[in-house]
Predict the structure of Zinc finger PHD-type domain-containing protein.
Amino acid sequence: MESECEWCGFKFIGVTDGYQCDSCIYGLFHKTCANNTNIAHPSQMCGNILYHTLNYKPGRNRRCSGCRERINEGVLFICNNCVLVPLGKGRFGSSYFHFNCAKYPASEVIDVPQHHNHQLKLEMVKSCFTCAACGEDGVGYSYKCHECNLKFHVNCEKYPAEVTHFSHPLHPLKLLKGEPPAYTDKTCRLCGEKLANSEVFYHCSACNFSLDLQCIFHPPKKNPHDLNIHDHQLTLMPKSISFTCTTCGLNGDRSPYVCLPCDFTSHNDCSGFPWVININRHDHRVSRTSLIGAVNSVCGICRKKMDWSCGGYSCKRCPTSVFHTKCATRKDVWDGKEMKDEAEEEEDIQSFKVIDENTIQHVSHKEHNLRLDKSGIFIEDRICEACVYPIYHHYFYSCMSCSFILHESCAYLPLWKRHVVSNDRHSYKYWDYLIRCTACGSLSNGFRYEAMYASLDLRCASVTEPFVHKSHPHPLFYTSPRGICSVCNDEAHHVLRCIEDDCGYVMDYKCALLPYEVKHNVDQHFLSLCFGDEDANGKYWCDICEKETDPKTWFYTSKDCELTLHMDCVLGDFGGLKPRSRGSRYVNNASKYFVVVRNNSMSRPLCKQCKSRCIFPVFLKSWNESSSSYEYYCSELCWYS
């Protein structure tokens, strides 16, 4: 199904660059539309910038300050600081503009109109008239032919029938609407955007040269001299040509800036990059360089090979950490701040103090020392205070005076780190508080990392690249957000991908961190995670819920392989909550409190919501004031219903 741009309303035809809202799946924007959300407009004598708004609801008699025609529902630009618009009774309000009137303002003079043979001039005086082009009445600004005394709607004539453009001086470009000619590549020669994304476009049939409206009204500079890009003046080469961009190291196929004496080529939109930045793929700052210099290097974001002779970003502390310029400055990677003039503070990020070879004092348990235990002896119901997962065969630190326990790996986590789910720095928090992990979506009340708009449980925060999983022969990486998990077939915002050619394997964080081994009272042995058997046939049943299982999907099995257990039945929804811990949720203007309880008694409680026996290893118990009795909830769905 073709998606429409939230700005201009035109569809995404084929594969094109664009932006998508982080919070929803519907906020789609063309690249050129998203890059022009705040713009200057010639009618604004105040010099202010026009700001965008979405899903505007029309006010009474509100008209566009560009064409003076009525504004209907849709996207528009507003100048909130200007008083051009009279509201009556001596009151004035903001200036409002149609999307196209703001982004592509009408020319004062049209030398070659679409529907007339004489020159037209824009009359910035509101009047009533009948349009000579479409025959409909109009109220607002108009184009007028002073020879014929005819008037036209601004929107009927605002785009000339032909233009002369500096990027194609040989012939004038003629206005075309609708589908581009079949012999063209259907893209703009300068920016590469699909022509179908533009309301109209201009074309030279003799040279097979096309430009969209964006490049007609806002073209790249012809001969820029920007020391941020190159020491010499550059020249725009408006032709189809394959090249490797010296600035960002990525390949291009059209209209580069060139400096012939220096053998310099650059995308015409590769400018304005910051010098020193923080990115969520690396804990240190990275700096822009004109020469990567590292042979056989791979970008730490897209995982594609980098051209060592081109520019990019690199870490001064970690010579092998290099990044493509455009990858490092992606909106889902960079926090948008230039750090060139900001001093980098040296911080102690270690979360523990070494007492001796096997003893530490941890920031989360300062009152007692913790001693390292390497015995690997399994003790029932022993869990890590940090990640809330059981301690089976792992090394761990245990308190020398109380029952406090941490996995060795959890004890060594730093006080802050950067993570792919957010552009902000995440800080280590070690007090009990219920969160929903941004990466995997699971509930947790163990230790966590928090940023302004993201919370991570320690297991997700500990994922590093390359991520190796037993189910897949290749390592996985976080190259880009959002994808369909190859394991559970659910869409997830944060996923790990296989970068091998034609593999396409995707795994979300929830499936990636499923424990390989787990202890459950359904069997005396450890249960092992099985990754499915494509050749399996016959019927299999889960011994916990007594419902049929699909052996071709992931499941848990016993040592003798006689069990096929649903993963949800083995783990439940509340595996990230500490047994005996307490919490609450807000319901009907009141807080409803709960206690986390292990399901290890002989009788299973009855769930208040689904009316079935609780089969999961952990459930919630809540006190009902009206009935003066406890209520039990077996899953998230039941608790939040």
Residues 581-640 form one domain. The CA atoms of residues 382 and 390 lie 6 Å apart.
